[in-house]
């Protein structure tokens, strides 16, 4: 008993000495009211303070991540929500689900969906709205891509390609172009006017899980499934030359679930971020492919989605621990930490 008390006393003295000497103490992560009561599958940034997320609890949630306040919750899906998106500058939100449909919501309105899009036979994983807000694109594991009239809910176009199990879709800002990834290891580029594939990127060695478009609309990111460090990379493509692979970002040890371009900061070059099933978020130099920083979220499980709000704030959706607000600091050196969970 005396030995145990002695050990505890010494440990307490070391801690007190560290505090008195000015050594930094790790900041506590703020725990806000959880946005979801189950795994969070997707998150997007809506404004400088608001995000929208979807989870296994079948809910679509609008959340103020700066104040830690849930603003609105929408229920309408009968199975897990797989993707969410929005129309820039509007109060329209869209969600896709394993219940084979997509729904449209109006922020500030009642909890009922204002439009429904039924037509797929399997889970909907691709969801993208046109820049003019008139059309919605959906993609599914049923090998099909659909184009919808948002006002009427009518399906305008449907195209089915063998083995095109869609995993994600992005509408290129200010254009008629849509990019989608697939479980057949392919990235396809569509023309929404003809509803035809105009380009196909060289087939990768692993399933392509996610894609993102650069702000200048010149480049595409795609991320890869994998295990034990094999096939877990993100890839930068030149959208102007669809056969051109620019650089690969290698370093994750399990599947890379999401990859996004980061807004350009005043004290840094162009960067991208990726999240993985290995519980890590990595920051990369976009041009060289060098890993600049790695943050591991122990116990969070697969990190399924990322959403940058600005150069210094990044939101991360996880399987086990909800949503995380990550802060990126650039001076005096690049650093990333968790500020809050919700």
Question: Can you give a write-up of this model?
Answer:
By secondary structure, the chain is mostly beta strands. It has a domain at 201-342: Methylamine Dehydrogenase, Chain H. It is built from 1 helix and 29 strands. Mean pLDDT is 92; it is low at 1-25.
Topology:
Layout: H1 2-20, E1 30-31, E2 40-45, E3 50-55, E4 59-64, E5 69-75, E6 81-86, E7 92-97, E8 101-106, E9 115-118, E10 124-129, E11 135-140, E12 144-149, E13 155-160, E14 166-171, E15 177-182, E16 187-191, E17 196-200, E18 208-213, E19 219-224, E20 234-238, E21 245-249, E22 256-261, E23 271-276, E24 280-285, E25 291-296, E26 303-310, E27 313-318, E28 323-329, E29 335-341
Parallel strand pairs: 1-29
Antiparallel strand pairs: 2-3, 3-4, 4-5, 6-7, 7-8, 8-9, 10-11, 11-12, 12-13, 14-15, 15-16, 16-17, 18-19, 19-20, 20-21, 22-23, 23-24, 24-25, 26-27, 27-28, 28-29
